[in-house]
């Protein structure tokens, strides 16, 4: 599933091509995504200008004067800028066509993605209104995590992956950040010190910024808006490396399941 760095990479890739451009038409070939694409989407978007391309967690926001299109890439979705001569593929479900003959094309083989429309401020939408702070924003601090975690018995990995705690920290980057902070992924969130949380907040920002700089992580399906893969997987310390020696202590990396997801950690470096 595309995580925050992949979504931010996509946002940065498409924004220069569609900001201040006018939509001429919208073609919906298959509306059957996670939720049906609104029937009125074509009427709402046609003839309006995209004023900004934003992001909230893993959601992309195409902002206009009339409202906002909310997109989520689901398990395997991607957005690409193509020209009008680009052949349409089997899983190319939606085209947003602009006045420069460029197309923003939504491709989603598993159809777990989302494309919705709202006329209200997007932060009031039911998908966004209860989300936690952005991990790259000023509200995400060690003090915040420490205060939020008091009395919590939930495992720290599940705690930081909860969108109500903080948005956008998915499975890959949670494993990497906890390794860098030296925290065992099964430790109870409420039993971690403020000092450790300060370190965790810092390395979360570090690992996300590094991943964004390298275009995200391509483990299965992710490619950026130009159709190119991300290269952060070459820098991964523990994720996907079960049975391999830790780069710091040479202890073998372990793989366990947490919340139906694979977790990777070093039993010596993470306590």
Number of helical runs?
6
Termini gap: 28 Å
**How much strand?**
15-25%
Integer tally of domains: 2
Shape: elongated
Computed over alpha carbons, the radius of gyration is 20 Å
DSSP E strands, number: 10
CATH-defined architecture of the largest domain:
Orthogonal Bundle
CATH class of the largest domain: Mainly Alpha
Order of helices and strands: HEHEEEEEEEHHHHEE
**Mean pLDDT reading:** 91
Explain the layout of strands and helices:
Elements: H1 4-18, E1 23-28, H2 41-45, E2 52-56, E3 59-63, E4 68-72, E5 78-83, E6 92-98, E7 102-107, E8 114-118, H3 142-149, H4 156-161, H5 171-181, H6 194-213, E9 254-258, E10 261-265
What does this 3D model show about the protein?
This protein is of the alpha+beta class. It has 2 domains: 4-124, N-terminal domain of MutM-like DNA repair proteins; 142-265, Helicase, Ruva Protein, domain 3 (Orthogonal Bundle). 24% of the residues lie in helices and 20% in strands. It has a 4-stranded antiparallel beta sheet. Strands 2-3-4-8 form a 4-stranded antiparallel beta sheet, with helices on one face. Helix 3 (142-149) crosses helix 6. It is elongated, with a radius of gyration of 20 Å.
